[in-house]
Amino acid sequence: MTALPLKEALNQACHEIERTIDVLLPLVPGDENILIEAMRYAALGGGKRLRGFLILETAALFDAPREAALKAAASVEFLHAYSLVHDDLPAMDDDDLRRGQPSTHKKFNEAIAILAGDALQTSAFEAILDPSTKLDASIRAELALSLAKASGSTGMVAGQVIDIRGEGRALPLEEVSRLHALKTGALIRYSAEAGAILAGISKSDPRRQALLSYGADIGTAFQVADDVLDSTASTEELGKTAGKDEDASKSNYVALLGIEGARAEARRLIERARNSLEIFGPRAETLRSLADYFVERRS
């Protein structure tokens, strides 16, 4: 079957993922409904669903069950949404805008935003561990373990700590690369590998290793492109406050390599990511297009 053009494939996946999120987060009676409203606001308030799309596309390479892949895609979007809610808080990046709308703590309040982020994090694991996901228990457990490692003290949260402690300091390129491999890259690597996990593919299988390499490179390239956008795009284009890194005196790829140097580094990483997919032949064409999109996007 011929692959859909990337934009059409992204739009279709976005709708499917959002329908899944909508089912997983039903409104409830009682005072706690405000928590669900805040969770839905954070999880359904726009976004490109790139991490969820990665899971769907890599799962399709192995003909893994679509319904289970959609649960895993919703799960990673819950986790990502929680990280954004907490990242925007005054104690973190202190941003009032997210995806062109008021941040969750501005729409509701700080306490509800913190609790909504907490609940989204636990919902991420509930979605993939629930027996209704219709996967072997060992596969559900491996998904949950991999997501925990990518998002906790050995992944995204560790990167956020390094980011906070690096404000006002001139970090070397090696440390900036490590920071973003954890803060941004770990969840993208997980999303690229998750399709193989869903299909029960062994860790030693070269196809799974290829997806890990692909995920690592597009994760770094995504952050390099983000740093370029932070320096060149407007707040309206980004949907969040532009120039935040410079204002906070953060070391990033643009500060270290310059805008053109950062763009060249992103292109180098994307070329390497595309080469990692050779083992899949034409079946991975959408993933190749997605790699290009990671550095060509304007938001």
Description of the structure:
With 299 residues, the chain is mainly α. The chain has one domain (6-296): Farnesyl Diphosphate Synthase (Orthogonal Bundle). It is 71% helix and 1% strand. The chain has a two-stranded antiparallel ribbon with strand order 1-2. Helix 1 crosses helix 3 (50-61) and helix 7 (137-151) packs antiparallel against helix 9. It is globular and about 50 Å long. This is Polyprenyl synthetase family protein. Keywords: Isoprene biosynthesis, Magnesium, Metal-binding, Transferase. Belongs to the FPP/GGPP synthase family. It comes from Aristophania vespae.
The share of residues in helices is: over 70%
Unreliable segments of 5+ consecutive residues: none
Oligomeric state, counting identical vs distinct chains: single chain
Total domain units: 1
Task: Write down the CATH topology.
Answer: Farnesyl Diphosphate Synthase
| Global mean pLDDT | 92
Strand content: under 5%
- N→C terminal distance: 31 Å
CATH class: Mainly Alpha
Secondary structure class reads mainly alpha
Helix tally?
Answer: 14
Annotated CATH homologous superfamily: Farnesyl Diphosphate Synthase
What does the main sheet amount to? 2 strands, antiparallel
Strand order of the largest sheet: 1-2
- Gyration radius from CA atoms, angstroms: 18 Å
InterPro entries: Isoprenoid_synthase_dom_sf, Polyprenyl_synt, Polyprenyl_synt_CS, Prenyl_diphosphate_synthase
Keywords: Isoprene biosynthesis, Magnesium, Metal-binding, Transferase
Family: Belongs to the FPP/GGPP synthase family.
GO molecular function: metal ion binding; prenyltransferase activity
